[in-house]
Amino acid sequence: VQLQASGGGLVQPGGSLRLSCVVSGFTLDSATIGWFRQAPGKEREGVSCRRQNNGSIRYADSVRGRFTIARDIVKNTMYLRMNSLKSEDTAVYYCNAYRSGEDYWGQGTLVTVSS
Predict the structure, then answer these.
(1) Which of 8, 57, 60, 96 has the most crowded Cβ, counting Cβ within 10 A?
(2) What is the pLDDT of residues 68-80, one digit of tens each?
(3) Which residues contact 99 (CB under 8 A, 6 or more apart)?
């Protein structure tokens, strides 16, 4: 099982980025998927998730209306579209998949929002 995240970088406030996470080892539709982030000096927090059992989607209050989680079953890839980025969104972003009682993590991709 491998989760490979990409798409981070430096962006100005108000800008957009799309993170990708290619999953290998199982199909995305068999897992609950999500994105987490960890800002400097802070604990890792959940950003968004899509539940496997019913397809429901949740967002942290801090990103609701700006971020969108998505998946492409054919490419077995999950995405996080981030719009209207703020300096407080600066963090390392991690993709996650929860399947059959196991948590799987990507390696993290750094997003820096700064002018």
Answers:
(1) 96
(2) 999 999 999 999 9
(3) 26, 30, 31, 32, 52
